[in-house]
Write a structure and sequence with these properties.
Layout: H1 8-21, H2 26-33, H3 37-44, H4 52-62, H5 66-78
Amino acid sequence: MSTPILDGKTVGYVIAEFRRNKGLSQEVLSGLADIGRTHLIAIEHGDRKPTLETFYRICCALDVSMETVAREIEKRLTNKP
């Protein structure tokens, strides 16, 4: 059995989806999460994976639990062909 890989593009897509569902711009979310806008853009595009601290800040800024976001990421990863 191979070790699963955490796909940065999937992580970023899910974070962006939560952001859009909350009606927040990247600028507003990055401000609420106290991270740079370019950093958030890189995360959403899958160019960078967030650290646990950054993931926590983003989830708090989105007013959603880390567990909820992580479950959605895991769901997307396990449903990939």
